Inverse folding.
């Protein structure tokens, strides 16, 4: 078994315990809880890594504009969630992000950078809202937000690196993620 496949298998095994519950309700208290939240939900991990892979597939300015737009809009979504502003279909939007981004990666879809930024931003709104809505009133909201933004940036960077794998590997991984999105939608 190659080193790349061992790394993929290790990562999948590490994520298995979190697959049962996408939003465990951590009772966030600050930076470390904010950082942990995206790492404990399979839906978040997949979508954020897929954003990085999609950006890597597009190359050029997309390498920083697509993940950057995700981070910016996720911060807005987080603020809306923390403020108690309702956003309908948050869990559906998150599940759709896994399905759609998985399909985009699997198909090696080419898109203008602005369209890729818009797609990433749309899904970031749902992910950010979910993070922000789960900040307890007594928690340090800014520290929690800094944590989930840092974790997201790290997951995007992992996706950018994974985007260097062979196209066939990316097609299979994207397809598996898309199927996971279907399972998440069916709930």
């Amino acid at each position: 078994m190659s080193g790349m496949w061992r790394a993929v298998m290790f990562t999948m095994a590490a994520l298995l315990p979190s697959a049962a519950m996408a939003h465990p309700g951590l009772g966030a208290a600050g930076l470390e809880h904010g950082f942990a939240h995206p790492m404990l939900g399979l839906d978040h991990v997949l979508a954020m890594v897929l954003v990085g892979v999609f950006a890597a597939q597009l190359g050029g300015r997309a390498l920083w504009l697509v993940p950057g737009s995700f981070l910016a809009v996720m911060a807005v979504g987080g603020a809306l969630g923390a403020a108690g502003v309702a956003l309908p279909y948050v869990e559906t939007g998150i599940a759709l992000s896994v399905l759609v981004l998985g399909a985009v990666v699997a198909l090696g879809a080419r898109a203008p950078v602005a369209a890729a930024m818009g797609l990433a931003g749309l899904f970031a709104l749902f992910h950010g809202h979910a993070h922000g809505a789960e900040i307890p009133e007594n928690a340090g909201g800014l520290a929690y937000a800094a944590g989930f933004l840092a974790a997201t940036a790290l997951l995007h960077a992992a996706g950018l690196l994974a985007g260097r794998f062979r196209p066939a590997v990316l097609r299979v991984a994207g397809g598996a993620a898309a199927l996971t999105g279907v399972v998440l939608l069916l709930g």
Remarks:
- Helices lie at 3-15, 31-39, 42-58, 62-82, 90-107, 113-133, 141-162, 167-186.
- The chain is about 75% helix and 0% strand.
